[in-house]
Amino acid sequence: MLLSSFDSSAVIERSHHRTISHAVFHSLYQQLQASANFSPYEFSLIRDALIHFLHNGSLPFLPLSLSTTRRPSTPQSDPVIPALSHVSHSAPNWKSLLFAWAEHSQEYLIAVSDEGVVLFSNKRAQERFSLYEGLVLEVDWEQERLSNWFLEELDLGEKTGYRLFLIRPCMSTLSKTASSYSFSEIQTNSPLYQAQLHTARIAAQSLSNTLLLGETGCGKEVLARAIHSSSSRKDGPFLAVNIAALPRELIASELFGYTEGAFTGAKKGGQPGKFEAANGGTLFLDEIGEMSMELQVLLLRVLEERKVTRLGSHEEKPLDIRIIAATNRSIEEDVRNGLFRADLYYRLNVLQIRIPPLRERKEDIATLADEFLQQLHTQYAGGPTGICESALAILQQHSWPGNIRELRNIIERAFLHAYGDSWLTSHHLPSEWQQQYGLQEASGEPLPLLRELERQTIQQAITQAPSISAAAKKLGIARSTLYRKMEELGIG
């Protein structure tokens, strides 16, 4: 992860990759959980405070005893981390806590100054990238150590003065012993998607190239893996390459490979490309619409001749490979506008599968939300196990521009807020959603006075129970959750 206050558009322009995600805080949550004596609800407060910190540059007051934290020891002098410089002197424990997490996090964390100078990199980043000092824009991004990685920018909402990035691998390999997706794991109640899955099963039984169309986050790679796992090539490799994530100057060498001395910095002995590595299996080319015209010519030649030539070599290597391509662009419009070669489009578009966005398959929202909730319950060995009708009504009304990926992140955030409860309710969803959707049911009629009913139920439990702890037990929620609800509902 990279936290920066300088304009790194030159780097980001190379990746063209955007995502809206709160999943980056998941690792922090786990790190804190392993090192402190906090309750699950107190962890949700910490998590919200960190989000507030990134948005506003300050930390809200938290009713927590940070002295219970068993933090790893920190160096004598803290590195200058721009984000941490905004922390008030009255909260030294927070600064130490955040630094301790940064130093020992399993994420790749790099902090950069206004001028783009690398001021700090944690142990994991140093071990992998050796970025200790110097200008980010002067880092040799063509070095092999970064060839399989890209910068993914996370949306922090309004202008914060900082930019947050996660260093992610841009290709993944699935061997015959690795876990994979199958069609049986893709559950849908949508007739629209069921029809597309029928075409996908036909694709699995053929050797033809296949083109997947769909918005970001709708599950294109999951479907590509299911096609591979159900095909005659299931015992061969599955390689996924995100074209948009690779720097343009590296794409050719990554896909086609290179020989020793092919260019400055080429590895001794050369390196095979992804086409060679996927031989006998499936190569998934994601975001194919971002491919340059020059690279489209090279790809077309490989598809026509079924041979690949490494950069710097004249030797042709035969290929036995199946291509599954995907894009979130209007590829036919790109062909008409001359942005994508028509002959390459016809080569890739033997079988076409359009994955509908989540807003067109709302029959699946409840099933997917429950599936994600059960996964989280298993992962955390606790937490809510069900979603109430008021929350489902809101989930059904949202337009889901981020599709399944957005739904997964929303359920995870709500799960953490509801950890001490048995049910995930509308109050655990984003507050702006409660204002936008919460007052209306799908029919447009006002909801019953659920909030007033909840207030009366809590008041009755408090009156009948001898203590707050007993009232919380009677309601089936944690004491900290009961205090929060009392504050939300104005119960003295």
Q: If you had to describe this structure to a student in words, what would you say it looks like?
A:
It is a single chain. This protein starts with a strand and ends with a helix. α17 crosses α18 and α18 crosses α19. The protein contains 19 helices and 18 strands. By secondary structure, the chain is an alpha/beta fold. The protein has three domains: 2-169, no CATH class; 172-356, Rossmann fold, CATH 3.40.50.300; 360-489, Orthogonal Bundle (Helicase, Ruva Protein, domain 3). The radius of gyration is 25 Å and the shape is elongated. The strands form five sheets. Strands 2-5-6-1-3-4 form a six-stranded mixed β-sheet.
In short:
This protein has 492 residues and is an alpha/beta fold. It contains 19 helices and 18 strands. Strands 2-5-6-1-3-4 form a six-stranded mixed β-sheet.
Look up the CATH topology of the largest domain. Answer: Rossmann fold
Radius of gyration: 25 Å
- Runs in which pLDDT lies below 50 for 5 or more consecutive residues are 1-38, 52-95, 113-117, 130-179, 439-449
Count up the helices: 19
Q: Structural class, please?
A: alpha/beta
What top-tier CATH class of the largest domain fits best? Alpha Beta
The tally of strands reads 18
> What name goes with the CATH superfamily of the largest domain?
P-loop containing nucleotide triphosphate hydrolases
Distance between the termini: 43 Å
Strand order of the largest sheet: 2-5-6-1-3-4
CATH-scheme architecture of the largest domain: 3-Layer(aba) Sandwich
Shape: elongated
How confident overall, as mean pLDDT?
A: 69
Q: Outline the biggest β-sheet.
A: 6 strands, mixed
Helix fraction bin: 40-55%
